[in-house]
DNA sequence: AATTTGGGCAACCGCTCTGTA
DNA sequence: TTACAGAGCGGTTGCCCAAAT
């Protein structure tokens, strides 16, 4: 007994959008806005499409400020840095890249940047680590897709997705080897919280994939995040990123703890409650 | 030249979150 | 307090096209 579908999939058009449909949607949204109701929008706009499809098309393709392709080195570093810190929270990562969408960033990561990062990382692995790393970046059994995401390639915190706790528990720690910078430890979490089942104990430094400093430097570009970076309007997340980077070099645990505490909603945030996130960073997600 | 293979990306699916009655 | 509807998100699929054989 699932909830009713948002639309009758048999009667709405699916698949690629035609230029005429794009024009209809674009002109309607530009003239009337979304009205806060995507479900009703296609009917009003004269489109035979699901509201969700309209929303996706607008957000990912038709918005006037969208950029496609042409990622800069700086954007690469931002993506890598945030992915290593918060995992596959694409909407958050995309929000720090003006003109980029979560879908675009996600595709870019899955098809290009992940390989690029791994190519840099691989030669840096200690002798016994590659097996763990290799296993950690294999697509999960549930994902045979060539572009399927993996939640474990870079970030320990990615293990603690706010979504899908069941799936999280199904992912055995063996396939989700967390990453640590030079043996740095993740903050331990209280074990009493229900979401934190014994099936997935707090990550321990042992068994994880070590990232050495040179790899972080290489990947992120040491010292290249300017304070008050224009991308972030100065201070705020930009300076946090810079702090993040330096902490990643010196003490990854505090960085990960801060971001983890910030981005994990509800119980997961409480789980890390003893770690105070930077002021003003967590308004919308907890 | 024809076929196969793999990468890139748009779109869909299904779930959680959030607001509201 | 609860149930429902809609929005938002991350994961996955499938098509298209270029490179390789």
From TrEMBL:
Q: Where is this region: Disordered?
A: 119-149
Q: Which Pfam families match?
A: Myb_DNA-binding (PF00249)
Gene designation per UniProt: gb05169
Q: Which controlled-vocabulary keywords does the entry list?
A: DNA-binding, Nucleus, Repeat, Transcription, Transcription regulation
Task: Please report the stretch or stretches of sequence annotated as the Myb-like domain.
Answer: 9-62, 63-113
**What organism does the record attribute this protein to?**
Eleusine coracana subsp. coracana
SMART domains registered for this protein in UniProt: SANT
A Gene Ontology term for the protein's cellular component:
nucleus
Q: Which residues form a coiled coil?
A: none
Residue ranges annotated for the HTH myb-type domain, each copy included: 9-66, 72-117
Return the InterPro entries for the record. Answer: Homeodomain-like_sf, Myb_dom, SANT/Myb
Principal subcellular localisation of the protein: nucleus
Q: What is the recorded name of this protein? A: Uncharacterized protein
Question: Which ranges are annotated Low complexity under compositional bias?
Answer: 121-147
Q: Where in the cell is it found?
A: Nucleus
The organism's superkingdom is given as: Eukaryota
What GO molecular function annotations does the UniProt record carry, in alphabetical order?
DNA binding
